Every structure is written in C-alpha cells, then in structure tokens.
Amino acid sequence: MKIFSSEQLYQADQITTEKQQITPSDLMERAGTQIFNWLHQRMQGAQVPIHIFCGIGNNGGDGLVIGRLLIENGYNVHMYVVNCSDKRSKNFLINYDRIKNVTKSWPHLMTSEEDFPEINPEDIIIDAIFGIGMNRKLDGWVKKLIQYLNAEKAFKLAVDMPTGLYANEPLQDPEAVLQANHTLTFQAPKLSFFLPETGKYVPFFEVLEIGLDPEFLHTTEPLAELIAKQEAQKFYKQRQKFDHKGTYGHALVIAGSYGKIGAAILASKSAFKAGAGLVTSFVPKCGYSILQTALPEAMVLTDTEDTFITDIQLNFEPSAIAVGMGIATEKKTVSALVKLFSETKAPMVIDADAINCISENKELLKVLPKYSILTPHLGELERLLGPTKNDFDRIEKTKAFSKKNDVIVIIKGANTITVFGDKLYVNTTGNPGMATAGSGDVLSGVIAGLLSQGYDPLIAAVFGVYLHGSAGNIVSQQVSYEAVMASDISNALGNAYLALFEQEPQPQEEPQEK
Ligand SMILES: NC(=O)C1=CN([C@@H]2O[C@H](COP(=O)(O)OP(=O)(O)OC[C@H]3O[C@@H](n4cnc5c(N)ncnc54)[C@H](OP(=O)(O)O)[C@@H]3O)[C@@H](O)[C@H]2O)[C@@H](O)CC1
Ligand SMILES: Nc1ncnc2c1ncn2[C@@H]1O[C@H](COP(=O)(O)OP(=O)(O)O)[C@@H](O)[C@H]1O
Ligand SMILES: [K+]
Questions:
Q1: I want to staple 281 with a disulfide (CB 3.0 to 4.6 A). Which of 29, 74, 268, 326 is the partner?
Q2: Is the ipTM of this complex over 0.95?
Q3: Where is (6S)-NADPHX annotated to bind (predicted)?
Q4: pLDDT at 33 over 70
Q5: 435 Cβ below 6 A of ligand 2
Q6: Does pTM surpass 0.90?
Q7: Does CATH number 3.40.50.10260 belong to domain 2-222?
Q8: Would you say 412 is a known binding-site residue?
Q9: Could you state, in order of their start, the residue ranges of all structural domains in the chain?
Q10: Alpha carbons 447 and 450: distance in angstroms, whole number
C-alpha cells in the first residue's frame, strides 16, 4: 500500500473531481458516508451519545456529513463547530447548510472554554477538527479543548487523522494532540502514523477507500511504501524441483567476540532458516567449539586471535555476508573490516559493531561496498549520522546518507523503515516482544540468507524485515510479548514463510434461520 503526502492527497482529490466529473462536496459525501457506514455497522442504532467536534475546514465538513447521516438514521448526535476562525471552507459551508434539512438543533458554536460540553465515559467523541490541512500549532482554547477531550474516558474516533498531528511533518506540540483510540483515514495511511514520536497517537487505524482516481494512485511515486503480506508475497521466490544447495548460495557470517559468540550462532542459524544453502561462521578462536556444538549445520572458520576478530581469511567465495554482530570495535577489527570492504564482491549486511566501527572510523565509508545493507537501531544510526532533531529529520538524513554512499539503510524500530535513496519502505510486522537481546542478530542472518539465495539487496532488506517481524508475531502469539527470545524468532522463520501464503480466516457466517 502506498503512503502519500498531504500534498499528493490534495492533488489526487483535485484530479478525481475533474476526471469523475463530481464536485468536491460529492467527494466529501463519499468520505463521510464511509465513516457513517463504519459506525452504523458497529452501533446498529444504539442510542449512545455521539459528540462530533467539527473544525471549519474540510475535516470539519466530513464531520458535518457524518453527523447528518447519523441523525437521518436516528442516532443520538451532538454537534459542535470549533469556531476558531471565520474562514470556513466552501464545502464546510455547503454541509453546514445541509444540516438544516435533518434537524432543528443547529450545531453548537464553540468560541471559548465556556462552551466545552459535558461528556460521559460511555459516550463517543468524533474528532473532525483538523485533518491534513492543519498548518500551525494549536493554541488558546482549541488546545485546551484537545486536552479536555483527552481527559475524558469516552471512546475517541479521529476522522482522517487525530487533530494536532501532521501527515508528513514533525510534531510541534505533544500537548495538543488528540489521543484517538481509533483513526479512520481516507484512501492512504499517513507517514506520521508509523514514526515513534507521532505514531503513538495512532494506536489503531483503518484505511477507508473513497474512490480517488485509480490512475493517479497507481502511477504516482508515493512518499513511502507500506509493506504488508500482500506486498511481501510478491517478493517470494519459488524453489524449483532440481535446485540443490549450491543454488541457494553460501552465506558468511562474521560475528562474535569473547562473551558474544551467541550473536554468531543466532545470525548463522537465521541465515539457514531464511534458506541459505551453506553457511560459514567466521569467529574468533574462542567461538570454535561453541559454534560446532550449537549449530552443527554451519562450517566454522576462525581468526588467529582468540577473543576478537583481527583478520578475515577465507577459503571460499561467499555469495553473501553478514558482518558486525558482537564483534566489538578493536583497532585490529577495524583494519579487518577495511580489508573486507575493499576486497569482497559479495553483497553485504553490515550490522551492530561494524556500524559502530564505521562511525568511529569514517575512512571505512570510503570503502563501503555499493548496495550494502546497513541495519542500525536508533542509537547506532545517531552515532553514524550525528544527532537528529526528530523522526522526519532522521529520515531525511538517512536518505542523504544512503544517496551519498549508495547503500541501503534499515532504520530498526517498531515500524522498521528501509531507506534507499528517496525510497522508503515501512514495515508492518513485529511487536514489542522483539525488543530483546539478539533479535537484531537474527535479522542480519535472515537478510544474508536471502542475499545468498540471489534476492536483490533492496528486496532482501525489505522482505527480510517483513519475515523477521512476522516470525516475531508468531512467537509472541504463542508465548506472550514478555517471553519472546531471539532464538525463538529464528525458530519461527519457517512458520513466517508458511504464513506468507496462508489464507486469512474468513469471518464466520451467521447461521441461517430455518
Ligand atoms: N483527498 C482527500 O484526502 C480528501 C480529504 N477530505 C477531508 O479534507 C481534510 C482536509 O481539509 P482541509 O484542507 O480543509 O484541512 P483541515 O484539516 O480541515 O483544516 C484546514 C482549516 O483549518 C485552518 N487551520 C489550519 N491550522 C489551524 C490552526 N492551527 N488553528 C486554527 N485554524 C487552523 C485553516 O485555515 P487557514 O490556515 O486558512 O487560516 C483551514 O481553514 C482531510 O483531512 C479530510 O478529512 C475529504 O473531505 C475528501 C477527500
Ligand atoms: N517495539 C518493537 N516493535 C517491533 N519490532 C521491534 C520493537 N523493538 C525492537 N524491534 C525489532 O527487534 C530488532 C532489535 O534489533 P537490535 O536492537 O539490533 O537488537 P540486538 O542488538 O539485541 O540484536 C529490530 O529488528 C527491531 O525492529
Ligand atoms: K481529525
């Protein structure tokens, strides 16, 4: 699914009305009707008080449409206009006027704190104050209204987006954002829904299609691509009957130091689980017996040094490499990386301490192999790029880094984002159970396993992140978030592959009346 910017959505809006020869208020009617249908299906006429707060732009216009349709269908509706400006949009006014046709109780005009209504915990609040058109900080009584609504226990449903958030810009005032329980967003999710500073205000959302021009949606390069099952399925490469282990490549995992040999085991095992034909683990000498015992399928090469890596001597040509997990940042390890980066042709995942080595020794950037995949968590990313002001600034700086160095960067987090030049891929799988030691090592192994099977680096990155999160979801459903361990995620990779093509359970049909 595509994530469009607010500018692109306005453009889509305009093209749609032109091509479909409809008015903007027809489009607003579609949008409002979708939300009404959503509510009607769930409420089935229940007389719970519904408080609709409408701004003075088109988000407010949507709120007026929803209110009209609810009133027409006999719901218990209370409408308010958050009258923060006299500059009401044309389509707001059209729908303001239409309210007359269905009720004698005109929406309550709010102009100060004195107008805040009483709301009970079991009521419903609909936030149609601002959507993608909010263009400055909320202040005065409007900010107080948001805080007043946040303090209420009533269920809060945001129309298009919670008031106070921008679709694709950083948050300005965390104290002036509606804490929606659920958001119904039109046509495409917004980037801010997926970033830590803003996504916390969008715990649940659904996308409602409003029939924007399919050609525009199809041909426009989006701000970002959302990767869910449907997208991930397309990446999968079917195995052929006469394939043999050579077909799936020989992955090399360079990992571990004294006390951190587990990182090498987790990554090597995950490379196997992702489908690599052969896996060799390169570790300091102290890791030899540990690896041979813990992972008999892997071949092991060792450094001359006992406790950390100093010189990576190979006796084969790897088809893919994952390097850096638990290797520490000793001077000799940095020299080994310089040599590896300069001499190796295989596609490479660069993780953890290998990223820290780059941050501390910028000369490594000069030899960074093109199309390498860097997998930093936020701490590692900031060490690499320097401090960033907010989530959006971080993305922009990562894009610039990716372009400058011709590499793919995976920003790990709740919604991991893969960055390649201006392209962004936002992952949808994963859960807080994965915030556990070693889960990043598993990811590096998975991506190396995909690379070794011949997946293109960008696809290996995006698909690997999806599979890794999906495996994490499978584990957490079995054992709780708390009990997820990295080795469980690795073990669940097989089920993550199976889940890719599993049919979603169909909703049970109501039994027919005899
Ligand atoms: N294609 C689509 O996606 C479709 C979108 N649709 C809907 O339209 C919504 C976007 O509508 P929109 O452009 O009218 O913007 P909206 O969010 O109502 O606010 C703008 C108004 O608020 C004002 N204003 C701004 N900031 C302010 C502030 N801090 N404090 C005070 N005032 C402030 C600003 O005034 P001004 O800056 O001119 O003073 C302007 O009047 C979108 O979210 C969706 O719900 C559907 O109907 C159909 C298809
Ligand atoms: N709250 C979360 N939701 C989803 N995924 C998460 C969450 N927290 C962590 N993860 C995932 O777990 C992995 C953690 O990686 P990392 O921090 O490098 O772990 P480690 O260094 O211990 O191996 C990343 O892939 C990240 O996306
Ligand atoms: K809203």
A1: 268
A2: no
A3: 58-62, 131-137, 160, 263, 326, 377, 441
A4: yes
A5: yes
A6: yes
A7: yes
A8: yes
A9: 2-222, 232-500
A10: 5
